[in-house]
Design a protein that fits this description.
The chain is α+β, with helices and mostly antiparallel strands. Helix content is about 20%, strand content about 40%. The strands form 4 sheets. Strands 8, 9, 16, 17, 18, 19, 20, 21, 22 and 25 form a 10-stranded mixed sheet that branches. Strands 1, 2, 3, 4, 5, 6 and 7 form a 7-stranded mixed sheet that branches. Strands 12-11-10-15-24-23 form a 6-stranded mixed sheet. The longest helix has 16 residues.
């Protein structure tokens, strides 16, 4: 990295007198992705990536330029300056610490030590385990990346981060000749190949297909208001979609959030505590510094039901009179935007079995098949992967095609019991045409008077 540091130091030295602020992000990485359909490798992509972007701030406006050819670094710097000078804006940056640091993720098994054939073999194991009776199709996807990044700015920060990230996902469909049902699962982490090597691949594949087959005999879900227990995965989706997006500083400033001007107000029941924590190393959304060089740490968004913080970049936090929370994210070629990292509901003190006690007629929801949220109106709808009736405190009839919908604030206030278990899911979040790795989760959660929809 030393040669790149010297190159960018010279660029900053020449450019900073001409602008109010500038920063440089540089990255080079190795990436592999493999797609397997019905046991056959359908696609393999491997390659190296290298790129640098210059961002300059002048007259309250950003100039942004990117290149994969470092011989053009001076050229794109001039482009960025011209762009910023051609605009007028109201961008200001909140104060940030000047940091010099070097961080490297712990890796036991480097991806380069595992051949494409070995990676494909493990995918084949997952596929074979998932190929059980009534399963008619499977898709296994694998992706790994090792990236070296460098961030430098005109304030004096110089941060090097080496990150490894891997994920494997499996989708299975099952049919009885009349209907088709699906199972999905994924595993991954911000580590090396040991995440995959240490996993029980046979169990991983089998459980996903068993879910798809089980849903063939499940009954259509009833519709109406019920006490609901959400498993950790669905709890995570609820927190991510219903709360997480609504506390993003850019949406607040765009008047597109039900939580605008609600800092310090009660938005959930007093047992609810919600965090976003990019510094959580076991979370798939882990990063030690955001793309503006801000060090990450646990950020409590909701404390005892009160909204106490937001997610911010340096520019959104400046307008909101806050400090950046370290939530500016993007790939190097894109403009940074405010994003979640690892977002979760803090566990409570109840045993999971206790949550079910006293429910005469309720619904247990497990997993997620996606959904949608309108942060401005404060309403959401999520589809659970599977469900079960709860009768007299016992889990009974399996359900399919079940959804959970409602008003964000009403639903958060209807959380009346929280389990003492905890799990973070491995996933990706899309926003503004960009995709970012995230973790979301929490414990089993009980919600009163939840609006459940189904075909029954």
């Amino acid at each position: 990295m030393e040669e790149y540091i010297n190159l960018f130091e010279n660029v900053i030295a020449k450019t900073s007198p001409k602008v109010d602020y500038m920063d440089i992000r540089f990255g080079m990485g190795d990436n592999t992705s493999i797609l397997m359909k019905d046991g056959n490798v359908d696609e393999i992509n491997t390659g190296m990536s290298l790129g640098a972007r210059i961002r300059v701030l002048n007259n309250g406006a950003w100039g942004f330029a990117y290149t994969t050819d470092l011989s053009k670094i001076n050229e794109i710097t001039e482009t960025a300056i011209k762009l910023s000078n051609s605009l007028k804006g109201d961008v200001e940056l909140s104060e940030s610490d000047i940091i010099k640091d070097k961080v490297e993720v712990d890796v036991k098994i480097p991806f380069k030590d595992i051949s494409i054939e070995e990676k494909s073999d493990i995918m084949k194991q997952a596929n074979n385990a998932a190929t059980i009776d009534k399963v008619n199709s499977t898709t296994v996807s694998y992706g790994d990346s090792e990236v070296n990044e460098l961030f430098m700015n005109s304030e004096g920060s110089e941060i090097q981060v080496k990150t490894s990230r891997v994920r494997m996902a499996l989708n299975a469909s099952a049919t009885n000749g009349e209907i088709i049902q699906f199972g999905h699962g994924s595993l991954g982490g911000v580590k090396g190949f040991e995440v995959i090597a240490d996993a029980d691949i046979e169990e991983f594949g089998r459980k996903i297909s068993e879910k798809a087959v089980r849903l063939l005999d499940a009954k259509p879900a009833p519709s109406g208001q019920f006490p609901v227990i959400a498993d950790p995965e669905l709890t995570g989706v609820l927190i991510h979609e219903a709360l997480g997006h609504a506390v993003e500083g850019d949406l607040i400033l765009q008047n597109d959030s039900i939580l605008k001007d609600r800092i310090g107000t009660q938005i959930a029941s007093d047992i609810v505590n919600i965090f976003d924590d990019a510094s959580l190393r076991d979370g798939f959304g882990y990063y030690p510094y955001d793309v503006e060089g801000v060090k990450t740490k646990p950020n409590q968004l909701v404390k005892d039901g009160k909204l106490i913080s937001l997610l911010n970049s340096r520019s959104t936090s400046s307008k909101l009179g806050m400090k950046s929370s370290g939530n500016a994210r993007s790939i190097i070629a894109d403009q940074p935007i405010v994003r979640m990292s690892n977002t979760f509901l803090q566990p409570g003190d109840m045993e999971v079995s206790e949550l079910f006690e006293g429910i005469d007629n309720g619904i247990y929801l497990k997993g997620s098949r996606g959904g949608q949220v309108d942060t401005g109106k404060g309403i959401f709808q999520f589809n659970a992967a599977e469900g079960y009736m709860i009768e007299n405190g016992e889990i009974t009839t399996p359900l399919r095609d079940v959804s959970l919908s409602g008003n964000i604030l009403e639903t958060l206030k209807n959380i009346d019991a929280i389990g003492n278990d905890f799990k973070l899911s491995v996933g990706f979040c899309g926003k503004g045409g960009q995709t970012a790795p995230v973790g979301d989760g929490g414990p089993h959660t009980r919600i009163l008077n939840a609006l459940v929809g189904g075909m029954g």
